[in-house]
Amino acid sequence: MAVTLILGNRIVSISHKSKIIFIILLVLLQVVFFCGVAPQEPVPCAPRKISCFFCNSSKLKGCEDPFPKRDMFSPHLPTVDCYEDCFKWLYIDYQQKHQLIRGCSSQLILKIDRHLICMYESKGRGGYICFCSAEKCNPGGVAETSPRAMALIFAATLMLLHGVS
């Protein structure tokens, strides 16, 4: 027996075996997307703790970009325990002075969706803030692939490979 789904303007038939795989993938996606979120959200998952680099380039020369790979493993670089997301923020003031700040998103008072990964300043000075959710993931680069995005890509690929036609 096949199940028929309407995805956008396409009609998709799923066999019994594919239906089981589809249900398993949906359950896995719920676990991936709803476990490991910020503890202030009412989701019954155990909070996870990660370490984030914690520095300000105006006070610590080693905080600037490019962030040397050898420093990523240095016990002398300051880190902070974090139950939310790490961030890397390039702030550019009106005199075009650059300041790079790394830390944990719980230190920020922002009314934005951290799950957007990176956001650029609306004032056009070139600054940005990026969020990530892995151990010491804020050393450099504008954006790194999040585990949630990778899980979604993986699930979509499996669905396409296993009988969704």
Describe the overall structure.
- One of its GO terms (cellular component) is plasma membrane.
- It is a lipid-anchor; GPI-anchor.
- It is found in: Cell membrane; Membrane raft.
- It is a single chain.
- Helix 1 (16-34) runs antiparallel to helix 2.
- The chain has helices at 16-34, 147-161; strands spanning 3-7, 10-14, 50-53, 55-56, 79-82, 86-92, 98-104, 118-120, 128-132.
- With 165 residues, it is of the alpha+beta class.
- The two termini are 15 Å apart.
- It folds into 2 domains: 3-40 and 148-161, no CATH class; 50-144, CD59.
- Strands 4-7-6-9-8 form a 5-stranded antiparallel β-sheet, with no helix packed on it.
- A hairpin with a 5-residue loop joins strand 6 and strand 7.
- The model is unreliable at 36-43 (pLDDT under 50).
Explain the layout of strands and helices:
Blueprint: E1 3-7, E2 10-14, H1 16-34, E3 50-53, E4 55-56, E5 79-82, E6 86-92, E7 98-104, E8 118-120, E9 128-132, H2 147-161
Antiparallel strand pairs: 1-2, 3-5, 4-7, 6-7, 6-9, 8-9
Helix pairs in contact: 1-2
First-residue to last-residue Cα separation: 15 Å
Shape: extended
Q: What is the topology, as strand order, of the major beta sheet? A: 4-7-6-9-8
Largest sheet: 5 strands, antiparallel
Mean pLDDT: 71
Following the backbone from N to C, one meets helices and strands in this order, namely EEHEEEEEEEH
Provide the domain count.
2
- Which structural class do you get from the secondary structure elements? alpha+beta
CATH class of the largest domain: Mainly Beta
Question: Approximately how much beta-strand content do the residues carry?
Answer: 25-35%
Number of helical regions: 2
CATH topology (level 3) name of the largest domain: CD59
Q: Any idea what the CATH architecture of the largest domain is?
A: Ribbon
Whole-angstrom Rg: 20 Å
Q: CATH superfamily name of the largest domain?
A: CD59
Amount of helix: 10-25%
Number of separate strands: 9
Low-pLDDT ranges: 36-43
Membrane topology: Lipid-anchor; GPI-anchor
InterPro entries: QVR-like, Sleep_regulator
Keywords: Biological rhythms, Cell membrane, Disulfide bond, Glycoprotein, Membrane, Signal, Transmembrane, Transmembrane helix
Subcellular location: Cell membrane; Membrane raft
